[in-house]
Amino acid sequence: MLGLAKILRFLVGLAGKGKLPKPMRAVRVQLNGCPGFVLRTAEGVETIALEISGDRIVTLYGVRNPDKLRH
């Protein structure tokens, strides 16, 4: 497990370099039984699902492949 502080530093670093997509719209949804988001960006649609155990996020599932997101 990497730990919350390391993960946050990593994400902040990516954002600072412009490597994270800027959502034009984010909608909270359930994805395969997990809470998540559908993000619409300039690059297209992507999803992020959060697997939660207790009060912690244990896994992030991200999908950006347009062939998997057509429906």
Largest sheet: 4 strands, antiparallel
**Amount of helix:** 10-25%
Mean pLDDT comes to 81
Number of strands: 4
Give the radius of gyration: 13 Å
Q: Identify low-pLDDT runs.
A: none
Q: Determine the N-to-C terminus distance.
A: 34 Å
- What structural class do the secondary elements suggest? alpha+beta
Q: What spatial order of strands do you see in the largest sheet?
A: 1-2-3-4
Q: What is the count of helical runs?
A: 1
Question: Strand share of the residues?
Answer: over 45%
Structural features, described:
- The protein has one helix at 4-16, and strands spanning 25-31, 34-41, 44-53, 56-63.
- Strands 1-2-3-4 form a four-stranded antiparallel β-sheet, with no helix packed on it.
- The longest helix has 13 residues, at 4-16.
- The mean pLDDT is 81.
- It has 71 residues and is of the alpha+beta class.
- The protein has a domain at 21-68.
- The chain contains one helix and four strands, in the order H-E-E-E-E.
- 18% of the residues lie in helices and 46% in strands.
- The protein is flat and about 35 Å long.
- The relative contact order is 0.14.
Quick recap:
The protein is of the alpha+beta class. The protein has one helix at 4-16; strands spanning 25-31, 34-41, 44-53, 56-63. It is flat.
Relevant terms:
71 residues, alpha+beta, 4-stranded antiparallel β-sheet, 4 strands
Q: Helix and strand layout, with pairings?
A:
Elements: H1 4-16, E1 25-31, E2 34-41, E3 44-53, E4 56-63
Antiparallel strand pairs: 1-2, 2-3, 3-4
